[in-house]
């Protein structure tokens, strides 16, 4: 297993077959790799298969054709090496923040005292120390999403998959969460694959952007983002960042196909 092929997708196809309608070809011949510790974003128009790709990597959805390997293992179902953050935090309303973060520990029957300490450290790392005993309805949207990230990280997965996790947040909270995510990524060392509709968000966060075409999703281009790290929000005002945003945007000519 090479560090430069921590995630390896080769010739991936996905077709959804319904009994009473025509098959939907979601992904076609998708091939790419992700290095260990790399931050990669996936962008593309609505319906191009971004979420399907992420669910295949997570082992939640089966592939129709091709090979998918994560951390040296063939993906044929959910892997313990993978954590996933969804579009909404999906916290259990009857459980406290700490209890929600501990759900993967309970499901995997891990050593609860050991992972409780890790959960508390993660909550402190994202600024939620003191909120361990609160319930989801007592938290803002951004705080709930941070708790969701802690839940995905608590069992120390090798790969973190994120499906438009900040799409429902207001602009200012979303910018704050982008900065927070980069800090978490630097401190945790996880490999991240991040799906987003926002080209500027993808450029700000990642090392490379995988650009998908309209359905069926094919790789239109993989763009290396040559911006220095660490990054601040001010970097997005630079001509260099603007160059990468425009390079990606040129793939989407129709107005409203992808967020600006």
Description of the molecule:
With 260 residues, this protein is α/β, with parallel strands linked by helices. Helix content is 32%, strand content 23%. It has helices at 50-58, 97-101, 103-107, 112-125, 141-153, 171-188, 199-205, 239-249; strands at 7-16, 24-34, 39-43, 65-70, 73-74, 82-85, 159-163, 191-195, 208-212, 219-224. It starts with 6 loop residues before the first strand and ends in an 11-residue tail after the last helix. The mean pLDDT is 89.
Helical segment count: 8
Percent of residues in β-strands: 15-25%
What level of helicity do the residues show? 25-40%
Using only CA atoms, what is the Rg? 18 Å
Number of strands: 10
Q: Quick one: biggest sheet?
A: 6 strands, mixed
N/C terminus separation: 37 Å
Structural key phrases:
single chain; 260 residues; alpha/beta; six-stranded mixed sheet; four-stranded antiparallel sheet; 8 helices; 10 strands; 32% helix; ATP-binding; ABC transporter ATP-binding protein; transport; nucleotide-binding
